[in-house]
Amino acid sequence: MRPTIRSPAPELGPRATRTITKILWATKAVFLARGYAGTTIDEITRVAGVSRGSFYTYFPSKRDALLALGADSIRASRRVVGQLRDLPNSWTEADLESFVENWFEMLEEHGSFGFAWTQAAHEDDEIREAGMKTHLQLCREMGLAATALRGEPFDDPTALGLLIVSMLERGWAYCQLYAGTTDVADVRRTAVEVLAAVVRRPAGKRR
């Protein structure tokens, strides 16, 4: 699925680009605070500091803003998966620490999309099916990257990737929910230990 982004002119100028950026930034902020169902166009425009007319100039609906955020989110996620895939055979836990830290940083920017999409998917079969396909592709890429680190195949790379993505995303999400009571650095370190245990070769099979 592709978002519909209206263009009132043949080309978007700097002002239009700034307005779209403000709208998408505000949409992320409101999605994170209120979820998809609780987000309204009025709240988005209030946070963005733009009029309802400005929103509808570029986006036909809240749904299209969600899809635009999704496109940005998947591109950012694949960049971080690429960092895992490109690690050397002699990887260390420090390498995994860098990957996990980068994934958490990516979620600071894009995590609200996943939160909102999960809610929207319960109400919109088209969004669910399209998002599920893209998400599982990402999980497979993650699983194949982890398989390369292990140097030994897993039965189902997609299932492995789904496990890793779920661990990192839910860990980040609960850190947001429990802000002030949970040490994010400790959560990241624990995620590194779990990831290292998953991808490390069993004793007797090391290179």
Summarize the topology.
Blueprint: H1 14-34, H2 41-48, H3 52-58, H4 62-85, H5 93-123, H6 125-150, H7 157-177, H8 184-199
Helix pairs in contact: 1-2, 1-4, 1-5, 4-5, 4-6, 5-6, 5-7, 5-8, 6-7, 7-8
Describe the structure.
- By secondary structure, this protein is mainly alpha-helical.
- It has 2 domains: 14-58, Arc Repressor Mutant, subunit A (Orthogonal Bundle), CATH 1.10.10.60; 63-199, Orthogonal Bundle (Tetracycline Repressor, domain 2).
- Helix content is 74%, strand content 0%.
- It is built from 8 helices and no strands.
- It has helices at residues 14-34, 41-48, 52-58, 62-85, 93-123, 125-150, 157-177, 184-199.
- Helix 5 crosses helix 7 and helix 5 packs across helix 8.
- It is elongated, with a radius of gyration of 19 Å.
- The relative contact order is 0.11.
Mean of residue pLDDT values: 88
**CATH H level, superfamily name of the largest domain:** Tetracycline Repressor, domain 2
What would you report as the Rg, rounded to the nearest angstrom? 19 Å
Mind summarizing the main beta sheet?
none
Secondary structure tally: strands: 0
H and E order = HHHHHHHH
CATH architecture of the largest domain: Orthogonal Bundle
Q: Mind telling me the CATH class of the largest domain?
A: Mainly Alpha
What is the overall silhouette? elongated
Strand content: under 5%
With helices defined by DSSP (H or I, 4 residues minimum), what is the helix count? 8
What portion of residues is helical?
Answer: over 70%
How many structural domains can be distinguished in the coordinates? 2
pLDDT below 50 for ≥5 consecutive residues: which ranges? Answer: none
Whole-Å distance between the termini?
A: 43 Å
Q: Structural class of the helices, strands and pairings? A: mainly alpha
Stated plainly, the CATH topology of the largest domain is called: Tetracycline Repressor, domain 2
